[in-house]
Design a protein that fits this description.
- By secondary structure, this protein is an alpha+beta fold.
- It contains 14 helices and 13 strands.
- Strand 5 and strand 6 form a beta hairpin.
- Helix 2 crosses helix 8.
- The longest helix has 22 residues.
- It is globular, with a radius of gyration of 21 Å.
- It starts with a helix and ends with a helix.
């Protein structure tokens, strides 16, 4: 049976190489490897072997027997990582405050980064939460949970904090799709300042910005708005299966300009009809946010967001064309993620000068296109317990690949950060339910 399964895997891989083309398939494998190891080496400063063992190598299982041929080289002199597979190479280069960029052009500018956060004593876990957090860090049979950090804040005070080696309180951790919730926040800031509108008509704007390329977007519905992209209800025919050769892996690991990829695919549905998860939609929204700024995006984030919230270490990474990949590529320390979650809670309750309660209510309200009520605008929701059946329905959260969560529980005045490299269920439902039960007993 194992021989049959292995043979089928090889045949599937060969079919993919033929269907999508070897450069596209191999380039995605080398692109992921180079990009991840560059960011974790130069931004997060995690051990390369740890990242290879717990992130890169397990993810490359889809490559079948070719996985054993995948190699990488870290070049400290050029601040880059190059990955190779069957003669195909991809290189990601560290650009300082911009983090790592895959296939960065030679003229890409290095921006001097701020000093890294410094590890300080960890609060630890109070007795009443030790069993609960212990369970959250415990590996199930077969492993793969890989919890790396859990932090809990109650009424604005840190009450529990635990990490797993080699992660510390100063380690910047990858957002993956939690970046989407930040894009929704930054768009809101620009909307409320009058620089952007959720009613923005995307086709009209693109025609004005790129008149010589107007024919490129003829297959797009003229009613497409920025709101549709934030709600992931564009109806665009964007495939997000995370298999070699699909649209999302091409966008992240092969395309020089990520935001253009989904716009070239046409529609499956009319805009607003159906929620379909799409990192491509978010990258288009991120493009319009970045175009609304009057300074480089990393400077805007630093002055208008990080400094206001007192964040120590935020790195938002871009594609080769210089646009922030708002779907996936951003790093912050666990404590900074907790501060952002607390900011979202304060804003929802009308206690923030940075963004209004009206905006937070808008982005955390299910859109009509989200038939199960699981998605607002850049935020995941728990309507009717759709995601976490044992947690409050009023909960909303930023969620990312491999078990990244910043969960906000408004009724309990709780913010929970859970970060890891999970390949199996991360146990978030039990963690949230346990925290709520403890909250009831102690209040």
């Amino acid at each position: 049976m194992r021989i049959v399964i292995a043979a089928l895997a090889v045949l599937s891989l060969i079919a993919g190489l033929v269907m999508y083309g070897a450069p596209r398939i191999l380039g995605i494998a080398t692109g992921y490897t180079a990009k991840q190891l560059c960011s974790t080496h130069f931004v997060a400063e995690l051990p390369d072997q740890f990242v290879w063992d717990y992130d890169v190598f397990p993810r490359m299982e889809v490559m079948g027997p070719l996985r054993s041929q995948l190699t990488y080289v870290v070049d400290e002199t050029s601040a880059s990582v190059t990955a190779s597979l069957l003669g195909y190479q991809s290189t990601a280069r560290y650009l300082g405050a911009l983090g790592c960029t895959l296939n960065a052009p030679a003229q890409a500018v290095f921006v001097e980064p701020k000093p890294n956060a410094v590890a300080t004593p960890v609060l630890g876990v109070p007795p009443e939460l030790q069993q609960l957090l212990g369970d959250a860090f415990e590996e199930p049979a077969g492993g793969g949970r890989n919890t790396l950090a859990i932090l809990v804040m109650h009424r604005g005070q840190l009450i529990a904090e635990r990490y797993a080696d080699p992660v510390t309180s100063a380690t910047p951790m990858q957002a993956w799709s939690m970046n989407k919730s930040l894009i929704a926040t930054w768009i809101g800031m620009q909307v409320e300042r009058g620089y952007l509108s959720t009613d923005l008509r995307v086709v009209d704007q693109l025609a004005q910005r790129y008149p010589s390329q107007s024919g490129r977007y003829e297959n797009l519905d003229p009613e497409l708005s920025l709101l549709h992209f934030m709600a992931m209800s564009t109806g665009l025919d964007f495939e997000e299966a995370y298999v070699p050769g699909d649209d999302v892996t091409y966008m992240l690991y092969r395309a020089d300009t990520a935001w253009t990829v989904p716009l070239e695919l046409g529609h499956q549905d009319v805009p607003g009809a159906k929620f379909r998860y799409s990192s491509g939609d978010t990258n288009v929204a991120a493009y319009f946010w970045q175009e609304s700024l009057n300074q480089p995006y990393w400077e805007w984030i630093d002055t208008e967001f990080s400094q206001v919230l007192g964040l120590e270490d935020l790195t938002a990474e871009a594609d080769a064309s210089g646009y922030q990949i708002g779907s996936s590529y951003l790093y912050m320390t666990s404590r900074d993620w907790l501060a952002v979650g607390q900011f979202w809670l304060e804003a929802l309750k009308g206690r923030s000068d940075l963004i209004s309660a009206d905006w937070m209510r808008l982005v955390t309200t299910p859109q009509p296109s989200s038939q199960r009520g699981e998605y607002g605008l850049g935020f995941w929701l728990n309507t009717a317990g759709v995601v976490f059946p044992d947690a409050p329905e009023s909960l909303f959260y930023a969620g990312g690949n491999s078990g990244q969560f910043v969960a906000v529980l408004p009724e309990q005045d709780l913010v929970v950060v859970r970060l890891g490299l999970s390949r199996v269920d991360e146990g978030m439902n039990d963690l949230l339910a346990g925290l709520v039960n403890t909250h009831r007993r102690l209040n």
